[in-house]
Amino acid sequence: MLPLKDLNPTRRIPVITYALIVINVLVFIWEQTIPLNELEGIFMRLSVVPTFAIQDPLSLDTFLDFIRSMFFHGGWAHLLGNMLYLWLFGDNLEDRMGVVLYLFLYFLGGLVASFAQIIVNPNSLVPMIGASGAIAGVLGGYLILFPGVRVRGIIPLGFFVRAAEWPAWAVLGLWFVIQLFNGVVALGVQTGATGGIAFFAHIGGFITGLVLTWIFMKLVPQPPVEDRQEVLYERAQRYRF
Question: Domains of the chain by range and CATH?
Fold first, then answer.
């Protein structure tokens, strides 16, 4: 299912989530002003290239490569898909966790995601770009905090689409299973100079989000279940597909 809306109101404007989306979009627009051959060189110099990162994983330059990689994207579909998931699921995580913990989860998820892919394919010369790993961490956190929230979306059926409404645990759980299956299938497959989808980055980021959010729930007192349900659905009538 392609999710389009979650029935999960927030208490305040998700400033950080919106800021991350704006930065990603602005960086991508800047990418469009650069000739393709020059852009490939920029990705090689300023983003994570596994074979280079593994040679000096703890240097400041490598760390900056990890951060910059999270804001580069390889095309409109890549960008829009990532921003859709961040917009849908990031606002509630920011609302519950607060700015500092939310940013910590986002960037740590992105870092672990990159390392997970590097471990699987350390000799790759393909630049790793995209916010997918960081956003996977957001999805993992959302699954822990809001597993029962209803998510509305569409299911493509050939030339037709069908509207659907599933609980978050089904939407995000299925997403993770697909990443895991594709990652296992892709093990040992050489993608060549064209690169490919870094499935193990998605897996690493998602697991990071799960673990960090579980720790957060243990350390920070959570509202009673009844209060959470009331907050989630008191304004549900405002949400229409």
Answer: 2-238 (1.20.1540.10)
